Amino acid sequence: MTEIRHMRPRTDVGEGSRGGKIIGHTASNKPIYEDHNHTGHKDFSSGEHREAVKVHEKAWKEIGKEFKSKGIPADRVSKLRDHSKGMEHHAAEASKKC
Predict the structure, then answer these.
(1) Dist. CA 45–CA 3, nearest whole Å
(2) What does pTM read for this prediction?
(3) How far is CA 12 from CA 16, 18, 26, 38, in A?
């Protein structure tokens, strides 16, 4: 008799398997991680870095709206700084590759 085994998807490959929070995707469907120094960004083109700037900017603006409407806890202030660093980093990388 043939035994049927249930195949489970591998969890060590694919999107999100490199660790870190994914906050968006490039037009070519590469994940953009919250951590601007993530190794997944190392092969980004200039255009993909510009796309990442926009994603970090959007996240920054959302936190800013929260701040204006009800104040913001200290942990969210650090997220604002992180996204600011992300915008700066990706903008610098985009300009290097032009």
Answers:
(1) 47
(2) 0.66
(3) 9, 8, 22, 17
- 45 and 35 in contact (C-beta within 8 Å)? no
Domain boundaries along the sequence of the chain = 22-34+41-96
Tell me the pLDDT tens digit for each residue of 45-62.
Answer: 999 999 999 999 998 888
CB 30 within 8 A of CB 44: yes
Residue 22 near residue 16 (C-beta atoms within 8 A)? yes
How many Å apart are CA 73 and CA 63, to the nearest integer? 11
Residue with tokens 């490039």: 26
Round to whole Å and give the CA distance between 29 and 50. 14
pLDDT digits (tens, 9 = 90+) for 22-43: 999 999 999 999 888 888 888 9
Give exposure, 15-40, as e/b (b: 16+ Cβ within 10 Å): eeeeeeeebbebeeebbbbbbbebeb
